[in-house]
Design goal:
- The structure is a single chain.
- With 336 residues, the chain is mostly helical.
- It has helices spanning 60-68, 72-85, 90-102, 106-119, 124-136, 140-153, 158-170, 174-187, 192-204, 208-221, 226-238, 242-255, 260-271, 283-299; strands at 35-37, 43-45, 51-53, 56-58.
- The strands form 2 sheets. A two-stranded antiparallel sheet has the order 1-4. Strands 2-3 form a two-stranded antiparallel ribbon.
- α3 runs parallel beside α5 (124-136), α10 (208-221) runs antiparallel to α11 (226-238) and α11 packs antiparallel against α12 (242-255).
- The chain is globular, with a radius of gyration of 24 Å.
- The relative contact order is 0.09.
């Protein structure tokens, strides 16, 4: 197992957090103790009658509530101060990393996560989120190390397998990526981000019809997610269903009127007369087919093959010649 060496994080200025249920856990009995912050708001008089700032105590709860309020820069400063006197508590560094990441400072976030991992090699949240940061930084090999370390501790983690799929795909390893998403869905059949990312792989690999079932199911589970609607629209457009694609793009715009990708795509499919659809696409049937496919992965001891089951009544077999513009593809997986 690789050992990560982190640079000091005392100068970090901003960070974020994903999981809520266990952020307040610590490995130190003094985690609720206070740490002085130089820029306090209270004042006291010294012997010369000069007014000077009084040190303001920082607790984990105070820093966390600041983060929860969306004040990520301030939360970063507070967690940075907190870690000064709680340097052995990995959760303080984890939250520091989350705040920095949310504040758009990936290098500082990674340093904080890796410090948390150094203190607790089994800190899966830090391992997974360090992996996410590295994927966003375009460093999939380094991300894969952290993700595989976490999966070694928790093999049946849908979250970990989903991240594994992202790492493999960034490395150009398409089949292992697809397999990782299948395994994630066999553990959590409602993992909408695994469905979305699987569909995105198929779109980018010119396998648009294979993208329809997972994306139809993702939209069925969360119809108010504009990115899912947009990606479904791309898959429909490339599969020869311009009318259905237009409805998907319109649904994305209805949720988010500023969604530029969907707006561009909608303008494209409505600008010229499209060929008639041989038969309407049945998205509900496609979603049901995908549920059945997931059940086969779950029940199979060998994991089953990776072939999608597509209902013959759900889609026409005609291959579409419609090409969607590249900028309609939404590279997402911003897990919530």
């Amino acid at each position: 197992m690789s050992r990560y060496f982190a640079v000091p994080v005392f100068a970090l200025t901003a960070l974020v957090a994903c999981g809520r249920s266990d952020r307040s856990r610590t490995t130190s009995s003094t985690a609720g103790a206070t740490t002085p912050v130089v820029s306090g708001s209270s004042t006291v008089n010294d012997s010369s009658d000069n007014v000077r700032p009084e040190a303001v105590p920082v607790t984990y709860a105070r820093a966390e509530s600041t983060y929860d309020a969306g004040k990520y820069g301030e939360a970063s400063q507070l967690f940075s101060a907190y870690t000064l006197s709680h340097s052995e508590n990995p959760w303080g560094y984890y939250m520091l990393g989350m705040a920095a990441w949310r504040n758009g400072e990936p290098d500082q976030a990674l340093s904080a996560f890796d410090r948390s991992i150094e203190l607790d090699p089994n800190h899966r949240k830090s391992l997974y989120n360090a992996g996410r940061v590295l994927l966003e930084m375009g460093k999939p090999k380094e991300a894969l190390e952290r993700i595989e370390t976490a999966l070694g501790q928790e093999p049946a983690s849908a979250e970990g397998l989903r991240l594994l799929g992202r790492a493999h795909y960034q490395l150009g390893e398409v089949d292992p990526a697809i397999d990782a998403y299948h395994r994630a869905l066999s553990i959590d059949s409602r993992d909408i981000w695994a469905m979305n990312n699987l569909g995105l792989i198929y779109i980018e690999q010119d396998r648009a019809k294979e993208a329809l079932p997972p994306l139809a199911r993702a939209v069925q589970l969360r119809s108010n997610a504009p990115v899912f609607q947009n990606n479904l629209g791309v898959a429909l457009e490339r599969s020869g269903y311009p009318e259905a694609a237009a409805r998907a793009y319109e649904a994305a715009i209805q949720v988010d009127s500023t969604y530029r990708k969907a707006s561009i795509a909608l303008a494209r499919v409505t600008a010229v007369e499209q060929p008639s659809e041989a038969a309407p696409v049945d998205l509900d049937q496609l979603a049901q087919d995908f549920e059945t496919q997931i059940e086969s992965w779950t029940s199979s001891t060998s994991g089953g093959d990776s072939t999608e089951v597509i209902s013959s009544t759900a889609m026409d077999s005609t291959t579409s010649s419609i090409e969607a513009a590249a900028d309609t593809l939404e590279n997402c997986d911003h897990e919530e």
